[in-house]
Amino acid sequence: MERIILFDGVCNLCNSSVQFILKRDPNGTFKFASLQGEAGQSLLKKYGLNTNINSFVLIENGEIYLKSTAALRICRKLTWAWRLVAVFLFIPRFIRDLFYELIAKNRYRWFGKKDSCMLPKPEWKSRFLD
């Protein structure tokens, strides 16, 4: 099963989230690509998504998940304790996404922004798409 996470490569919160996932995904379930990179842009086009999307994107076996649904589906595959967070999938998506969008809209102001995408540690390099 293929699982790819597309993330904002210049967002400090998003980069921290990717590192969080990497540390709690010992089986290498997820691959990663920045939204700004060639692989990320190619995947966005392939799946008919706006190339200026403002969301975490999970591609899971050809299905697209965005915003809070993507984040919670990712949690379901992390180490045991984090799987419990997926219980919030039972909250209606429009309610979950209100909170997601509030954070997404303010993420640069609250968490900062880098000038360029993060470079993965050598042990994680194979999990990032070029």
Automatic annotation (TrEMBL):
GO MF assignments: protein-disulfide reductase activity
Coiled-coil intervals, chain numbering: none
Pfam families: DCC1-like
InterPro entries found in the cross-reference section: DCC1-like, DCC_oxidoreductase
The protein, known as: Thiol-disulfide oxidoreductase DCC
Naturally occurring in which organism (per UniProt): Neobacillus vireti LMG 21834
